[in-house]
Amino acid sequence: MTAPTPVAVVIGAGDATGGAIARRFAREGFTLCVTRRNADSLSELVSQIEADGGKAHAFGCDARSEEEMVALFEQIERDIGPVEVAIFNIGANVRFGITDTTARVYRKVWEMAGFAGFLTGREAAKVMLPRGKGTIIFTGATASLRGGSGFAAFAGAKFALRALAQSMARELGPKGIHVAHPIIDGAIDTAFIRDNFPERYALKDQGGILNPQHIADQYWAIHTQPRDSWTHELDLRPWMETF
């Protein structure tokens, strides 16, 4: 009997980093299950993967909903294949002064970057533990390490995600599951940076902003590491970024 094709799940498969990660794993033979709140926004990414000879399935899913996340992993395991890699890549970056940060904003950002990460990690662990293997990657940011002015909500959520990743790594590592937390410290080559920060985007030709494809290469490298040399946390930044 032919072994089923392994599945990589990307929660938050946006147009830049998430999409690049999905395409990278698809090139390595994984079947991709990619999610955003609106499945229609994933049609171009799925078409790209299929045009390159890969397989991909799009899901509209609110990662903050426990019911939807439980159903997502159950459906993938039942209808598509065993989840070997789960990547949480939801952004939730907002900036408000502390007196302008409403309770709704703070709670929503935490739900997007913290609580949704917990649901992703928990459901991935449930299906990986019986098989004794798997990789779970949570995308971090500069705010995972330090809270900047105006980023109280975002930093609080990213700190929570980092703590989640550390706790899961300590619990699941001895059971064969690699949990990692890459910190993306710098501007990424996205339409948002191009349109809103043209001076920063102009540094692209000097290697001054992160290339999503190069980020994706590091995610693949994390997945392929031998168990005796696992990385839990790494930071990726352009050479000119201060730290």
UniProtKB/TrEMBL annotation:
InterPro entries recorded: NAD(P)-bd_dom_sf, SDR_fam
Alphabetical list of Pfam families matching this protein: adh_short
Origin superkingdom: Bacteria
Cleavable signal peptide: none
Stored PANTHER family: OXIDOREDUCTASE, SHORT CHAIN DEHYDROGENASE/REDUCTASE FAMILY (AFU_ORTHOLOGUE AFUA_5G14000) (PTHR43431), OXIDOREDUCTASE, SHORT CHAIN DEHYDROGENASE_REDUCTASE FAMILY (AFU_ORTHOLOGUE AFUA_5G14000) (PTHR43431:SF7)
Name of this protein: SDR family oxidoreductase
Biological source species: Halopseudomonas sabulinigri
Lineage summary: Bacteria, Pseudomonadati, Pseudomonadota, Gammaproteobacteria, Pseudomonadales
